[in-house]
Amino acid sequence: MLDWGGRGLSVMEMSHRSPEIVGIAEQAEQTLRDLLGISADYAVLFLQGGASAQFSAVPLNLGFETVQADYLNTGQWSKKAIAEAGRYLDVNVVASAEASNFSAIPPQDLWQMGSSAAYLHYTPNETIGGVEFFWTPQVDVPLVVDMSSTILSRRIDVSQYGVIYAGAQKNIGPAGLTLVIVKRDLLGQANPKTPATLDWKIAADSDSMYNTPPTFALYLAGLVFQWLQDQGGLEAMEIINRRKAEKLYAEIDNNDFYANPVEVESRSLMNIPFTLANADLDKQFLAEAETAGLLNLKGHRSVGGMRASIYNAVTEQAVDALICLMQDFAARNG
Ligand SMILES: *Cc1c(COP(=O)(O)O)cnc(C)c1O
User: Fold this and answer.
1) How far apart are the first and last CA of the chain?
2) Among candidates 215, 74, 191, which has minimal Cα distance to 135?
3) Is 74 in the pocket of ligand 1 (CB under 6 A)?
4) Which domain covers residue 252, as residue numbers?
5) Helices (H), 37-154
6) pTM to 2 decimal places
7) Same domain, 149 and 294
8) Is the CB of 55 within 6 Å of ligand 1?
9) pLDDT at residue 303, as a whole number
10) Residue 334 has what pLDDT?
11) Fewest CB within a 10 Å sphere: which of 43, 95, 272, 292?
12) Where does the pLDDT of residue 287 fall: very low under 50, low under 70, confident under 90, or very high at 90 and above?
């Protein structure tokens, strides 16, 4: 924190042009490439502005020559991406799960693809609804995905995607850093009015150093990538994450006191919303959870109830403690 590599100064104090920071950035990128199996056909960019800035960057970088894009609506984050893209191009919503209150993924054979879309955008894990894709759409246009709340939770095949982006604050590191993995042949076709800070080609050509990157967040992300390697990589994380999610869903399904609305085959490994049989007890449940050291369990207002976000940093013991509380609470109040 205060003395990096015996230099007598913190990473926070170093110039982003210094060999130390350049080395830290290169190391972080290489470890991430190893973890996800990212080939040289892809640029790895470390940007700012969060996933939300990419809601604008995607249409600006890809939707200039062709001004139509396909978007799938599976939840609150899809909707935000759609609203922002609509400021720049003609958005064709191929299908929407809104009628089911986002409890299921519309099957691909029902999608109405646009006739001249530049890409298809979707959200592989809807953080609020707790809906996750365990399959990849097969389409003729590049797939652009917001992986903010699923990246690094399990293995993925990067070569199936044109663009993967993610805000760092769920599974990567501290807020302030945004990851973009983009196929190089998609670079260089941005709208000329694209702000330089959102232009992927400018970022790729400058090794993400067009302006000062969030150096300390990048350093910590590199440490997280190394930690993931030390755990055995994404294969090992996937085993742990599946076990964590399975036992929590089992408790929800086996106990009449709890319910999760999502279709079984699309239940998220990372974000698990659940409701109590009696919503009047929500406050009491949250208070008891807090007393037990289990924080941030309040569900999003659009869904109600509770939401357990069991990202990589949440241990299996923490999930066990939650299940223990759920059993005890249901026994006393059911
Ligand atoms: C958290 C989240 C976002 C918002 O990310 P910011 O970095 O705050 O812009 C976008 N999409 C998904 C799927 C998220 O989980």
Assistant:
1) 48
2) 74
3) no
4) 233-333
5) 50-62, 76-85
6) 0.98
7) no
8) no
9) 83
10) 83
11) 292
12) very high
Residue 308 domain-assigned (yes or no): yes
Same domain, residue pair 42 and 176: yes
In a domain, 3, yes or no: no
Give the type of residue at 115.
S
Contact between residue 200 and residue 187 where contact means Cβ atoms under 8 Å apart = yes
Under the banding of pLDDT at 50, 70 and 90, the label for residue 167 is: very high
- Shared-domain flag, residues 222 and 257: no
Whether residues 246 and 317 share a domain: the answer is yes
Compute how many other C-beta atoms are within 10 angstroms of the C-beta atom of residue 66. Answer: 16
* Shared domain check, 159 and 305: no
- The answer to whether position 5 is within a domain reads no
* 136 and 88 belong to one structural domain: yes
- pLDDT tens across 57-67, in order? 999 999 988 89
Q: Which of 185, 200, 230 is the last residue of a domain?
A: 230
CATH assignment at residue 190? 3.40.640.10
Q: Which ligand 1 atom minimizes the distance to the CA of 147?
A: 13
Nearest CA to ligand 1 atom 1: 148
Residue 305 lies in a domain: yes
DSSP strands (E only) in the chain: 42-47, 68-73, 90-96, 117-122, 125-126, 131-132, 143-146, 163-167, 178-183, 258-259, 271-276, 306-309
pLDDT of residue 246: 98
Cα-to-centroid distance, 167 and ligand 1 (Å): 6
Task: Identify the pLDDT of residue 301.
Answer: 86
User: Which residue among 230, 264, 292 closes a domain?
Assistant: 230
pLDDT digits (tens, 9 = 90+) for 240-255: 999 999 999 999 999 9
Q: What mean pLDDT is reported for the chain?
A: 97
Domain shared by 203 and 289, yes or no = no
pLDDT digits (tens, 9 = 90+) for 109-140: 999 999 999 999 999 999 999 999 999 999 99
pLDDT, position 292:
96
Q: Is 102 in the pocket of ligand 1 (CB under 6 A)?
A: no
CATH number at residue 280: 3.90.1150.10
The residue to mutate among 54, 74, 77, having the most atoms of ligand 1 within 8 angstroms of its beta carbon, is 77
Between 316-333 and 233-254, two packed helices, what is the crossing angle to 10 degrees?
0
Amino acid (1-letter code) at residue 146? D
